[in-house]
Fold this protein.
Amino acid sequence: MSSLANKPVLEKVTEVNRDKQRVLAIAFLFGDRHIIACSHGCLQVIEAKSGKFVGDPWQDKERSQICAVDVSPDGERVATGSKDGKIQVWKWNGKTAKIIAQSEKHSAAANCVCWSRHDGGAHIASGFDDGRVAVWPVASGLKNPMSTDDTRLRYIHTINYSHDGTQLLVSGYDREISRLTIDEKAQEVEVDEVIKICNNPEHVSSATWAVTTDRHAIVTGLTDGKIKILELPEGRLLELEGPDHSDLVCAVVLFPDKRVLASASYDRSLRFWDLGAKRPIGQPLPHSADPTCVAFATNGNSVATGTCDGEVYLWDIANFLSSAMPTEDVNDRDGDATARPPFNPDSPIPTRQRKAQRLHGDPSFPGRPLNTRRPPISYGRDFFDDVRAPVVEVPSTATPSVSKRFSLSRRVKVVAVSLMQQVLRAPQTQPDTPNEMLPTTTASSGRVQESRQNHRQYQVASSAPRVAFDQQSGATSERTTQAAVLVRRTRWVNALLRMGCIPQYPEQMD
C-alpha cells in the first residue's frame, strides 16, 4: 500500500450548487459515463470525465422536493422519492428527462427507493418517514402497491432488496432493523424478523445486505462510528476489526462483487473494508466536508461521494482494490479442499419462517402455535372459586369496545355482576299481614352499623331487611324488604364496589 500507484486517485471534485446544500443521494447513470446527484430538491446529471453539467436540472411541475434516487439495472431509468410522498420514474435520453410513471402522494416523505434486480427492475421498493413500506409494480404505472405499516420502525431511511428479491432490509435511526418478506402471489409484505443491533443512545444509521467468506450477512453502521456484521441465519453479531470511524456512519455500500464494503462517516472520511477478513483496506480517503452518500460504479473502477457542502468527489479505485484484495481462495485458506464446501453468494437468504411453523403447529418450534387457544389463567383459591359462572348473552347490537383494555373490563363486569347475584340471592318470603311490610328501622339501622364496624366476620341476618334506594336500583322511591346477606370484604368485593356492580349500605337509615 505504500506505492502511489496502489492508492486511490481523486479524479474530479464538482460543485453541484453554489448554495452549499448537501447532496442527499448519488448514483451512476448510462454505463458509468454520468453521475446523477440529488441536491436542493432536484436532480443534476454530471459527466464523469469532465465534471461538467449535462442538461437542465430535473424537477416536476409541482416542484416536489426530491430526496431519494436509485437507477434501474439497465441504467436508463431513474426512480425518485420526494418529501410529499410521491414515487416517480424518469426516462433520460441523454439531454432531457421526462416522467413516465408517478404514484399518488403520501402523508409522509419518501426517504428511500430501491429497484429490484432479480426481475430486471419490474418493482420499486420505497420507505416512508412514518414507518411504511410499499412495493410498486412498474408495469402498472406505480398503481396498487403491496404495502405494510407493521415494520416495527418509527422512520425508514434506508431500504435494500435481497439479491433473490424475496426480502427487504429496512432501517431508520433506531436500535433495531427489520427484515421483510415479499410474497408476490399473495401480494403481501410481512415482517419476518426484527433484530436488535445496539443499545441506547446509539442507533443504526445505515444498513445493507452483504456476503462474508461462507455465509450471507447484514452490515450496519451506527451513530457512534462502529460497523457491525450480523451473520445469517445464526444471528451472531460481530464487529469489524481495525480503527472505527469517530462519528456517525451515514452510508454503507457494497462493491459489485459483494465482498468489499465502503463506509462514509461524518468524520470526513471514506473507508474500505474486506468483509471476508473483517479488516480495513488501506487508509481512509479524506474529504473537505462530511460525506453524506456513496455509490460504486457498476464496473467497480470508480466510487463517487457526495458531501454536506454540495460537492461531488470521484475516485479511481481500480488498481487500489485489485492489489489490496487477496488472490487465494477464501473458502480454502488452510489448503484442505474438503474442510469447507464452497459458498455460493447467489444462494437464497434463509428466513426465520416463524409464522409457518406456528400456523402448522410444528413440534420443533418452542412457542405456542397460533391456531391453539391460550390456557386459562389460574389465580389460586379465592372467594369465587366454588361458584359456577352463568352464561351471559351480550346483545349483538352492543357498541364494540374501543380497545382490548375496555373490552376486558366489560366482560369482567358482566360476569362479576352475575356471580354476585348468585351469592347474594336468598329466598324471598311473602308477608302474612300487611304490617310485616313495615321494617323496624331502629333495629335494622343498629345492625347495619354494627356489621360495618366488624365487616371481616361473617354475620348473617336473614330476618333483617335490606333497603334498596333509588340511586342504586333506579326502580321506585318506595322501600322494599328482602333477605340480606353480609359478606366479607375481600379484594374482589372491594373491586366490585369501586365499579358500582353491587350496592353499598348507607351510613344511616330512617
User: Anything to note?
Assistant: The two ends are 103 Å apart (CA to CA). The mean pLDDT is 76.
